[in-house]
């Protein structure tokens, strides 16, 4: 079946009791039992809920995986993955990953004896050097947030297999429409479904996808025991969002390309970070593992002052200044003070994330309107 058809039908069957085409919102915490533990597959909604089941099936199908699990947020999904580890275990993680992932690793999990080693994963040799007999997990984000750096997933998978470690890929930025890490050898794919999967900036949700039943069983146990599950209405919203993932992504990519080219040609712009430029460092690998380049990018002005960046951040009229990404509307963001404020400044600068860097999530409006908006804001 073609991917576009699969996206429309993923996880959803007409409801057997009524024929409803769309999965109903089973807004119920508990389910009747005819005798103790005799029921129709559901007993309590933390352990399982039919709306969530449909969504979890859809998650699995989107990533060509066998299993999917839904969590109440992206970081809750990340947190569940870390619960697979024990004190003394080591995780090699990407340097410029999502600030909230860094915060969870560095300020919560590090206190429980998990050691995190941060390397530039765009060069696989750096990861190889950081391996020790205690390495249990490689955590990769590609493209990264916000510099759009690309890591070779296949090469990382080969390394993780050799080391006997799990490879986890945060696939939020690419979305399953552009990249499928399980097909490239990853063990677990993580998504902030808040972003492209939901797609309408109206829900917070996380997803995990995997092929190994053993991993699925462990993560399901963690999901129901630690309880960070999404409610049925939120599951419905993401199921609904997924149905238009392919048409939204096509437009995100088209608009992203136009805006990136506009910025690159602008005399006041110094750098544009977008993985679709042929001269961008990760281009060849991006072409190999992604179907297109998406609508995420960041840029810096030649005037590196914060004041110049603030003028743009406050000056756009269509493009709203807000955290998050992946919705139908375009957003602009200031990583240094917003999404990445929890990363210490020296570390941020060392990772190439300057004070004047601005990130764009290009939506599905008319591209010319977005370009005109940026033009008037940049001046
Ligand atoms: C937003 C985001 C997360 C965290 O997800 P939440 O749904 O906000 O908890 C993780 N990784 C990336 C790349 C993100 O953009």
TrEMBL record:
Q: Give the PROSITE patterns listed for this entry.
A: CYS_MET_METAB_PP (PS00868)
List the top taxonomic levels of the source: Bacteria, Pseudomonadati, Bacteroidota, Chitinophagia, Chitinophagales
| Named cofactor requirement(s) | pyridoxal 5'-phosphate
E.C. numbers: 2.5.1.48
Entry's family note: Belongs to the trans-sulfuration enzymes family.
Q: Mind telling me which CDD domains this protein's record contains?
A: CGS_like
Q: Name one Pfam family in it.
A: Cys_Met_Meta_PP
Q: What name has this protein been given in UniProt?
A: Cystathionine gamma-synthase
What InterPro entries would the database entry show?
A: Cys/Met-Metab_PyrdxlP-dep_enz, Cys_met_metab_PP, PyrdxlP-dep_Trfase, PyrdxlP-dep_Trfase_major, PyrdxlP-dep_Trfase_small
Which superkingdom does the taxonomy of this entry point to? Bacteria
Keywords from the UniProt entry: Pyridoxal phosphate, Transferase
What is the organism field in this record? Answer: Niabella digestorum
SUPFAM superfamilies named among the record's database cross-references: PLP-dependent transferases
Spell out the molecular function terms from Gene Ontology. Answer: cystathionine gamma-synthase activity
């Amino acid at each position: 079946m073609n991917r576009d058809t699969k996206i429309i039908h993923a996880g959803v069957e007409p409801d057997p009791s009524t024929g409803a085409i769309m999965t109903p919102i089973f807004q119920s915490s508990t389910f009747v039992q005819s005798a103790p533990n005799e029921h129709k597959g559901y007993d309590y909604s933390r352990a399982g809920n039919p709306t969530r089941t449909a969504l979890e099936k859809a998650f699995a199908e989107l990533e060509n995986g066998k299993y999917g699990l839904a969590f109440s947020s992206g970081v809750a999904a990340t947190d569940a993955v870390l619960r697979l580890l024990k004190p003394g275990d080591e995780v090699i993680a990407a340097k410029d990953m999502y600030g909230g992932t860094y915060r969870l690793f560095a300020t919560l999990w590090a206190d429980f004896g998990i050691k995190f080693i941060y390397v530039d994963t765009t060069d696989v040799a750096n990861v190889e050097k950081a391996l020790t007999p205690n390495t249990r997990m490689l955590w990769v984000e590609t493209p990264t947030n916000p510099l759009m750096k690309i890591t070779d997933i296949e090469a990382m998978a080969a390394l993780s297999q050799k080391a006997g470690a799990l490879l986890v890929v945060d696939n939020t930025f690419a979305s399953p429409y552009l990249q499928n890490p399980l097909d490239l050898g990853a063990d677990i794919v993580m998504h902030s479904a808040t972003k492209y999967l939901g797609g309408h900036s109206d829900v917070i949700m996380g997803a995990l996808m995997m092929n190994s039943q053993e991993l699925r069983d462990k993560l399901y146990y963690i999901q129901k025991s630690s309880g960070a599950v999404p409610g049925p209405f939120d599951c419905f919203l993401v199921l609904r969002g997924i149905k238009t993932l392919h048409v939204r992504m096509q437009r995100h990519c088209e608009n992203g390309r136009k805006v990136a080219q506009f910025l690159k040609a602008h005399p006041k712009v110094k750098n544009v970070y977008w993985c679709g430029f042929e001269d961008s460092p990760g281009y060849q690998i991006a072409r190999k593992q992604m179907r297109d380049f998406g609508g995420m990018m960041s840029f810096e002005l030649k005037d590196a002052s914060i004041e110049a960046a603030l003028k743009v951040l406050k000056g756009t009229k269509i493009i709203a200044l807000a955290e998050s990404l992946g919705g139908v509307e375009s957003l602009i963001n200031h990583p240094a003070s917003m999404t990445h404020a929890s990363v210490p400044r020296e570390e941020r600068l060392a990772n190439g994330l300057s004070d004047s860097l601005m990130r764009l999530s290009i939506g599905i409006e008319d591209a010319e309107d977005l370009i005109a908006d940026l033009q008037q804001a940049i001046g």
